[in-house]
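Input.
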Amino acid sequence: DLENDIAVVLATMKTHSASIKIQLLGCRALRSLIMSNDEDWGALCRAEAIPVFLDAVRSFPDNLVMQGLAITFVAVMVRDVFSSRRRHTIRNGGIPLILNAMRTFENDPRLLHTGCYALHQLGFVRSSRASLISHGGIDILLRSLQLHKSDSSLVDLCLSALSKLSDDNNMEGRFFAPLALEFMEAFPNDNS
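Output.
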């Protein structure tokens, strides 16, 4: 039964909290349940699985695989603007988790792509935008742009996220528009 399986995963993760292998396996199992259907999501909430998942991720901030799992998890959790998944993830520290992973692994384009997607999704809600800005989201996006100017799809995701953050923060004219123009000039013949 699903709830029993979740309880076993969580108990094992708590018992072996210092083992990166156990934490990775547990996080993968939880992530696959989260991504499957709403019934599984309800069971995970009842079991308080999300804080365990996020605690495991926070315990290994320098592990790219673990942080990649976290970024994917948060991106899935926040894609529905008014969902309980989004609220639950934000309430349990999802925004700083994304930003810390993006800061730590700023040279990993795959992680940054997923992170920028999550930031863009979070930018649809005013309270999320405020949290992203207060946790340094703009600086992280600008740093990603600096480091990956030649990656047009990452530039697009970064600019898209920055555009969302500028929606109600009076940044459009003085900040975002000149930045967008600079990158448009860098990709004059890009049809992607």
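The mean pLDDT is 82.
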